[in-house]
Amino acid sequence: MQFTLKSKGRARGLLAMATVSTMVVASGAFVSATANASSGGTVTIGESTTLSGSIAELGQTGLEGVQFAAATINAHGGLLGKQIKVVSADDAATPATGASNARNFILNDHAVAIFGPVVSSVAAAEEPIATQYKVPIFFHTSNDVALLTSDFTKYAFQVVPNTVMEPRAAAAYLAHAVGKKKITIGTFAPNYSFGTSTVAGFIQALKDLHVNYTLVNQQFPPLEATNIAPYLSALVAAHPQYVFNAQFGGDLVTFSKQAAQYGFFKHTKVIAMYSASPLEALGSQAPAGAIGFDRAPFWAAGMTGMNGAGMASFITAFKAKYHAYPSAWAIMAYTAVQTWAYGVNKAHTFAGAKVSAVLSGATVPTIRGPLYLRACDHQANVPEYVGTVSSSMNTKYHLHLWESNIFVAQASQIMLTCKQSLALRG
Amino acid sequence: MAQFLTEAMGTLSDAGSLFVVAAGLTLVFGAMRVINLAHGSFYMYGAFLMTTFVGTSSGLRFWWSILLAALVVGALGLVVQLGVVRFVVGKEPLTQLVATFAVFYILADIGLHIWGDGARTVMAPLAVSSSFTLAGAYLPVYDLVIIGCAVLVGLALWLVLGHTSLGWMIRAAVDDPEILQSGGVNLRRLHLGVFTAGALLAALAGAIVTPQISVAPGMDQSIIVTSLLVVVIGGLGSVVGTALAALIIGIADTVGTLVAPNWAATFMYFAVILVLVVRPWGLFGTPER
Amino acid sequence: MALSMNDQPRAALTTTDHTAPRATPARRALRPMAIVVGLIVLVVLGMTLSPSNALELQYATSLALFAVATNLMLGFGGLVSFGQGVFYGVGAYTVALGWMHHSLSFGEAMVVAPFLGAAIAVVLGALALRTRRLYFALLTLTLSQLAYVIAENQANFTGGTNGVFGSMVPTWLLDPRNSFLFTLALVAVSIAILWKVTRSPFGLVLRAIRDNRSRVEALGVNVFAHELAAFVVSGFFCSVAGTLFVVYSQSSYPELLNWTSSGVPIFMAVIGGMYSFLGPVLGAFVYEFANHFLIQYTQDWQLVLGVVLLVIVLLRPDGLAGAGSAVAARVRHLRTVRATHDERPGVAETGEGDAS
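Output (C-alpha cells, whole complex):
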C-alpha cells in the first residue's frame, strides 16, 4: 500500500515542499504550469527510479548518468539558456510509489521531463501520469515491449533494447553456438511483466531460429525475493543444459552464488545479464563460460552503437567523477537526457507536446552514435551485446569481463517491424 | 530419484530454518500468551549482524559470527521485553499485536539506519559451500548444516521443556501462574528468560540462512508471515506442532512449485485455512477459552 | 454500563463517563453542528489547496471510511481482523479489472464492488468466525495474504505484480475538485449509514457480545450470525473505500490486499480511538497527513509511527478521541467545580494541563 511503501524512503528535497505551498487554484492549471513554471534560470527534470533494495545499483548508477548528463549540459551553457536541475526519488520498485513520484515531480517540482525507472511495472504506472499531464517520459532502463506497444503514448520514448530485442539477441547467440544439436532449456525470471515477457520473447526467438530445444523447467520467483531456494532447487533438479535467466543486479548475484552451491555451473550454461557490476560483485566466483548479455557495455566502446563522438571522453570523465566505469544503466540514462535535450533544442521550448512531436522520427546524435527514434512506436534502434564470461581478468579494466569475441546484435535484426509493433498495440 | 533427492533436501533445509524461527515464536506464546510480531525483526537483525561480523571473510569467522549475532539479538530481546512486552502480557490480543507491530516498525527503521537499504550476501566457509553427489543428485553441503542446526534446536527444546523443572515452569507459567509464584518462582524473570531465548532462536535462524539468501530490508516482514502460518498450523504454544507445521509448509511450498507453479505461493495459505477449518486451534493447540 | 448507548470502552480509563453528564440537550445539538462544520472545512480545503495537497486530502477522506468500516468489527464487535485489506482490494480491483477486461463501466463497477465485497465477506467470514480471538486475527491475516498472492500470480486476470493502471476513471473525475467532492459525498453517506448501524438494536447486541459473549449467548442470541453480519457490513464499506482508492490513483495493485494494508485501518482506529465512532476518522487524517508530510522531511516515518502506536496502546488505549473527551470532561468537571466553589478560580488552569 502506498502509505507503507512510501516509507521505504525517498530522497526528496525540501525544495519540493516550498512549492507545495504554492496554490494552484484554476482548473486545469497544471497543464499550462508545466510549460511556463520553469522560469528563473532553471528547468527541472525528474528521475524516479529504484534506489533501495537488491536492484538499487541499477537505479543509482542510472541516476548518476542523468545527473552527469545534466551537469555536462549545464557546463556548456545549459538548455535554452536555463540550467537543468535534477530532482530524484526512490520508487522502491513499487508501481504506486513510482506513479506518486511522477505526479509529485510534475505538480510540485514542475518537472518538464521524466526519466525512467528500473522496473517495467513502475514504468507502466508512470506512463499514464506523463500522458495525463503531457510531459515526455524517457525509459532508459525498464524495457518491457508493452510500454511502447499496448501501452503506447506519444509522450513515451525508449532508448533501451526492449524485451523482444534483448532475448532475440541472446537466442541468436545461443542458436549460433549449438547449431542443430538437441538441447534442454530452463528459464528463471522475476515474476512480473518484464520477466514473463522476456522469457516469452526468448522462447519465441528460439522457435523462430529453429533451435532444437526441449523446455524442461520454468521458474518465476518474485522480484527481489530474499529466498529463492525452492525455485532454484526445482530448476537444478530438472538438469537443464542451458538456463535463460532474466534476473538482474543483486538478484542475479544471489542466484549465481546459490547456484554455485549446487555445482550448477559445471553442467549448465546460464544465459543472463552478466554485465560489469554483477561480474565484479561475483569476483572469482564469476561463472566462466556462462553467456552474458548487456545493453551498453562500456568495454565495447568503439563497436557499433557505442561509437558516438565523445564516448571515450565520457567514460574517462565519468570514471574520474564517480570512481567507477559507467554501467550500462548510466550510459543509457545519459543518452536519454541527450535525447530529451536534443528535442528541446529543436522545438525551442520545454513544452512536452512539442518536444515529443519533434523527437518522434528524429535521429539524435548521442555518445552512442546516432539514435533513430522511429515514429511508429518511439523505440530507439539500439543494439544488444552478447558474449561469454571470461575466466581471466581483463587486463585493461582489471575486471572479470567477457571473452574478446563480442557479438553485436544489430537493432535491424532484433527489432519488431513497425507493423508487428502496431499489431501489438491492439 | 535425483530430482526427488534435490527437492527433498531443499524442502528439509527450508523447513529446518523455518522451524528454528517459529519455535522461538511459539515458545514465547506458550509461556506468555503473547504473539510477538517483532519476532521477524530479530530474524532480520540476526542476518544483518551476520553480514557485519563476517564481512568478506570466508573462513572460520563465519561460525563464531553466528553465535555472536544470536547473542547480540538475545540482548536486544531482553531490552524489548523490559521496555514493551512485559506491559502487554495478559492484555487483549489487539493491544499485544499493535504494541509488537510498533516494535517491528521501530526496529525496521533503526535497521535501515545501521545497514542501509541495499541487499547483502554472506559467503559460507569453503568447506560447506560446495556440493556432494548422492544417487546422481548434486546436493549443497550447506543444506546439511541448516538441517543439523534445526535438529539440534529441536532436541534441546524437547529436553529442556519436557525433562527439566525449568521446562515445567515454562509450561505452567500460563496455566498456573499462582502456583508458580507461591512456589517462589519469579514470573517476571521467567518471562524475561523465555523472551530472550525466543529472540535468540530467531536470530540464530536468520544468521544461519545467510549464505542461502540475500539479506535485505523487508525480510523481517516476509518471515513473520510465514512463521505465523507455521505456529498457527502447529497450534500456538506447541513445539512439536511447530516442527510438524514447518514440514507441512515446506512440503506445501515444494509441491506447489512442482505441481502448479502459478499457484505455488497459495499452497501454504490453503494449508493454514484447511487446518483451521477442521481444527480452529491448530494441530497441537488447545481451544481458546 | 456495558449495554448503555455510550461509546466508552469497557476498559475505560474512567476519567470521563462517570463524571460527565452525557448528552445534555446542548451537547446533543453540538455534535451534528460539529460534523457540519467539519464537512464545510473539508470542502473549503478541498477547493483551495494545491492540487497535490487536495489529492492527499481526498485520499485521507477515503481512508477514513476504510478505518470506520474496519472499526465496526474492531471497536464495536471486538473482532480483530487483519483481513480487511481483502475487501479494500476487491473494491479497487472490481473497478480496475472491469475496465481492463471491458466488462464493467466505471458506474457499474462502483455499484457492483460493494456487493461483491459483501458476498466475499459472507464466505470468508463464515470460515474465519469459526476461530476465536488470536486465531481469528491470524486466520484473517492468512486470508489477506492469500488474496494478495493470488492477485500477484494470476497475471492474466489481475495484471499480476504490475497491478492495473490506466484511464479507468471518467474524465470529469480527473479534475481534483470533482474527485474530491465525489469522494467526500460517498464517504459521508457511507459513514452516516454505518452510524445508523451502530445505533441500531443490531449494533447494541454487537457491543454486548464484545463485552460479554457468554452472557449474550446464554440469552439465546445467535452470536455467530451477528458477528457474520458485522463482517459483511464491514466488508461492504471497505469495498466502497477501495473503489475510492481507484478514484484517487487510477490504479489497483496487489499490495492493497495484503496484511500490512489490512493493518493500516487498525492503526488508524487505534490512533484515533476505536471506542468512539468518529475516532477512526480522526485517526485516518492524522495518520495520512503525518505520513505524507513526515516522509518529505525525514526518512523515519516507521520510527515515528511505531513510537506513536506504542505510546497510545500503552498509555491511551482509547486513542486521541478518548484523550480528547477526557480533557473535555475534566474541563467540564472543573467548570462545575469552579461554579460551585467560586473562591478557587485558579484550579481550572492547572487542572486542564493535567488532564491530557
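The mean pLDDT of chain B is 88.
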